[in-house]
Structure formats: C-alpha cells, structure tokens
Amino acid sequence: MPDDLPPTTRHSNSGQDFATRVTHGGRPGIREHGFVNTPVYRGSTVLYPSCSDGVAINKRSFEQVMTYGTAGGPTHFALENMVAEIEGGSRALIVGTGLAACSLPLMAYLSAGDHCLIPDSTYGPTRRVANGMLVRFGIEVEYYDPLADAAGLERLMRPNTKVLFVESPGSHTFELQDIPALAEVAHAHGAKVIMDNTWGVHHFQPFTKGVDVSIQALTKYVGGHSDVLLGSVTVNSEEDWLTVVAAARQIGHYASPDDCWLALRGLRTMALRLKHQQQAGLAVARWFESRPEVARVLHPALPSHPQHALFKRDFSGACSLFGVVFQPRYTPAQIEAAVDGLKLFGIGASWGGYESLVLPTTNGITRTATSLDVLEGPTVRFHVGLEEPADLIADLEAALDGLPK
Ligand SMILES: *Cc1c(COP(=O)(O)O)cnc(C)c1O
C-alpha cells in the first residue's frame, strides 16, 4: 500500500513567504491523477488486505494512516499538514468546530483535582466549557487578569496547576498578554500552556513563544467565506500529540472531509485576503480614531493600544477584527440604532469571512476576576471584509453622523 508515504506534501522550505507556502503546501503532487487539489475522500470503513494487516495498520492509528473514518483520511491529513505548517508546529488535529478545539486540550490535560488558569478576557464559550464540564469533572477553574505579568502569575500558580490557558488579544476587549513571560512561569511549575491563537492566525507563531498547544477556529480566516465550521489543535512535540490525539479518539472528535476541503480551498487565498483585510481594517480603525463620537479603538496594531509594544515584539501583522468604545455620553440603544442603519456591515457573530460584520459587545463581556469597567462606553466589535475601505467608511460616516453630538 502506498500509505506509508504522507498523502500530501508538507511544504518545508520555510525560508519562503507565507503566500508561497499556502499556495504550495498540503497538495497531492502528481498523486491524485495529476489533479492539483486533494479531493474529498469520504468514508467510514477502511478495508484491510488481510486480518494481520488490519492489526498492524490499527497500531498506527495516531499516524497519518487510514485505519477508520474517525482517524481521518487524505483530505483531513492535507489540512492537518497545512495548519501545522501555518502554526509552526509538528502536528495538527482537525476537529468539528473552533470551540471543540478549545475544549479538547482542556479535557486532554486536566484531571479531577487539577487547577486551571483561564484569562478573564477569554472567548465566552470557553468560559462556559470551563464553568460547566471542567468544574463538574472536579477541576478547579480560576480566572486571572489577562494583564497579569510574570510576578502576578507566579502568585496564582499552585502545586496542582496543570494548565495555563492564554488568549491574546482577549475576546471583545483586545488586551495582549506577554505570552513568553507567562509561559516561562507556567513551565517552571510544570504546567502546559494552551493558547487560543485564532486572532493571530499566522501572525503569531505560538511555538517560538512558549506555547505547548495552539488552537485555531478555522471557521474564521482559514475558511474565510462564512460557510464552514472547523477547528484545529496544533502541537509541537510527540508527547503532546499523543495526549491530544488520544483524548480526541476517546471522545470521538471528527470533522467532515467536505468541510476540510472547503478550509483547504479557503487557505489558498488566505494570504491575499489577510493582506487586504489587515490594511482595510487599519484604515477603518484609524478613521474611527479621528471621530469625536469615539472614546477608544481597541486594535493592537494601533500605537494607541496600551500593549502596542507587545504587538510589535510578538506579531508579524494583524487581522481585521477590532473593537470601538463609543463615548460614555451615548446609551447602548443609541449605538445600536446607528449599527442597525449600516448597509455594508452585517449584524452577526463570527468573523474572518470575506464580508464585513458588526456586533454590539457591551453586554457580551463577562468579568469575574477583574473589573467590568474595562470599557467606559458602549462597545461594538467590527470585522472588516474584502470591500473597498472607502465604501465602508462612507457607510460608517452616515451612521455616525446620525448620532446626537
Ligand atoms: C469563533 C471563535 C472560536 C470558536 O469557533 P467556532 O468554530 O465558532 O466554534 C474560538 N475562539 C475564538 C477566539 C473565536 O473567535
């Protein structure tokens, strides 16, 4: 069987630009009858040439070998290879949603009696997993100030702390964390560092900064077209791979190969999309900064961001998701009325697609370890898509001009 060969190329010439790597990585070479893309391989049963072959093949079920549908097939493996490459890790596992990618490593590394630290700025559904299942399974969940420095984290570490969860920037509030400094403390105490790296996409390289397990909601920029839900868990050691993949197989995680195929298709244009969206997002964010209705723009790539120095040190670029804090003289209802009047921004959750989105976040922020007063006025999250920024700004200008002065 040709299965001993990896089903797709793992592009290894890392001296090349990201755009070149997402164009050439994860492709079948001449294997798929010469067709450029890995097709959708659907399947549950995998047939073995003989009983003894079946036993031998199943011993390798954590490798990229076809053993049964739930262990993945060529379409999954092509995407795994691409995601591992983008994140700079050794192996990636594809799961059905970004949220599944958040919960899987928490369940893989934590046991009853363990202590887990989660930033107060974490993505809301991650908080629900932690407060729900983790607590029910006897894990001590503690939220911490996302702006804690190494000394602050040191004070929170306990002998049973097994996981430091990080997310930078924070959901809705966009605080950046000093990941290398925090990871050093966690590792000194024998804890694993698990990061939700969805905002960073490829601009934050987690494994050069002390992260052990990196999560992406592939639903966002990788999918890129608001038509697919997927997540990935990437690691950079064989030991971590075995921990994560064993947990995934125990629970029965799986992703549809059709969705993997859509994500692979999305990846081919992601470098170009991100380049446009970074610039367009910054153009819109800077325009907001010039408006008297706005108190603050929450965008790590703007010099006004309180942790901009960390952004410059740790990120090679930005995506197009940011927040806008309006002046406290406005009520959330006034801001929502302005949002309702926007023509080019859809009102909805998620982000990373080709289209611009807007979401009031004032009531979407939970804080249990730090003050809820992090935001002084009504707050709105913007995702800038592939439209011409001047058109978006004209749309926003009309909405803001309608606000009382
Ligand atoms: C969207 C998102 C997720 C979850 O992704 P889904 O595919 O929607 O489940 C996880 N983390 C962050 C930071 C996200 O923005």
From TrEMBL:
Cofactor(s) the protein needs: pyridoxal 5'-phosphate
PROSITE patterns the record matches: CYS_MET_METAB_PP
One matching Pfam family: Cys_Met_Meta_PP
Residue positions, PTM N6-(pyridoxal phosphate)lysine: 220
Keyword hit for Hydrolase: no
InterPro entries recorded: Cys/Met-Metab_PyrdxlP-dep_enz (IPR000277), Cys_b_lyase_bac (IPR006233), Cys_met_metab_PP (IPR054542), PyrdxlP-dep_Trfase (IPR015424), PyrdxlP-dep_Trfase_major (IPR015421), PyrdxlP-dep_Trfase_small (IPR015422)
PANTHER family in UniProt: CYSTATHIONINE BETA-LYASE-RELATED
Keyword tags: Lyase, Pyridoxal phosphate
UniProt family annotation: Belongs to the trans-sulfuration enzymes family.
Catalyzed reactions: an S-substituted L-cysteine + H2O = a thiol + pyruvate + NH4(+); L,L-cystathionine + H2O = L-homocysteine + pyruvate + NH4(+)
Protein species of origin: Teichococcus deserti
Superkingdom of the organism of origin: Bacteria
Presence of the UniProt keyword Electron transport in the record: no
GO MF annotations, alphabetized: cysteine-S-conjugate beta-lyase activity; pyridoxal phosphate binding
Pathway where it operates: Amino-acid biosynthesis; L-methionine biosynthesis via de novo pathway; L-homocysteine from L-cystathionine: step 1/1
GO biological process, one term: L-cysteine catabolic process to pyruvate
UniProt xrefs under SUPFAM superfamilies: PLP-dependent transferases (SSF53383)
Protein name: Cystathionine beta-lyase
